[in-house]
Amino acid sequence: MERPKIKITRLLALLALCCTLLAGNLFIPGKIAEAAAKKTTISATTMTIPVGKMGNKVYWNQNSWELSNAQKLAVKNPVKGATYQYTSSNTKVAKIAKNGGYLTGLKAGSATITCTQTYKNKKTTVGKCKVTVKNAALSVSSYGNQFAVGNGGFNLADYYSALDSLFTITYRNPNATYTLTSSNADFSIKEVKYDASKVKDVTDNKEYQDVLKSFIGSRYLYGYQFTAKKAGTYTVTVKETYNKKTKTLGNFKVEIKDTSISESTKELYVGDYLGAFNLLDYAKENTKYYFDVKDTSVLSLNQDGSDLSFYANKAGTTEVTIREGSEQGTLIGTVTITVIEESSYDYDDFDDYDEWM
């Protein structure tokens, strides 16, 4: 009669062991995770900044499309009662206040910022941040530099639409000034700082203004506006002035083109539509153009609001004369348009071909 007691005792012991293991699985990892979460660390281990004093409203272009902003160097999960100190391995390249915060880039190069903790008279290293300081540089687009006579530029809407800027100053020094100088008075260009407050300068559409505001947020970027009085090739030189010293970052060329016809002849099928401005290259903004069709039975000009298009009525050949400004204005050119019937095929021929194959 003793054996059942032994079985019950063993069963109770086994249950107690399972409860202990279960409790360990439930509570021990939680304590470890909690302890790990409270580990004191430095907020960043690498940083790349421009020359100049960083701050909470400092942004710069890493390249033509990517914006970056200054970050504070701080301690995460500091120990209560401990003190922290920051030192730079190369104060000629980068410096920081003893209690941390934003860095100042002094010249191009590298430095290591070390954060130490003093607690109960014991000093330990919390972490290190490798800092790279870069000089401002001129990046020139390889996607084209040709524009029409008149006004143009690159603004917040262009940036939102991922269009290419003619040039970009990367790693801009927030404490420097930058100037753009044209080789000729017939072409002038200036930088413009765009932030959320400038959306009304970009568009009159309220909904689009809200989209741009949401997109840019607290950031800003530098675009540009130019005025070209006549066709020609112009050189723009970019200079930086900092600490009363001026240096040239580089230059780029801009080609300004007169309005011209895109091609002297064009072929359409009966029933085709063609946008009128497809016949022009480098049409000026805010300029009227007049299209005179010689034979409207072959080709008709249709207007829908501000949109102009041609419609191919029947087979034949006609000419379109284009003038700028008025019906008697400057002659841009004449385009010969041939309208042809769309080819028809005898499908029996295709059946014969299939049988032969």
Automatic annotation (TrEMBL):
InterPro entries: Invasin/intimin_cell_adhesion. SUPFAM superfamilies: Invasin/intimin cell-adhesion fragments. This is Ig-like protein group 2.
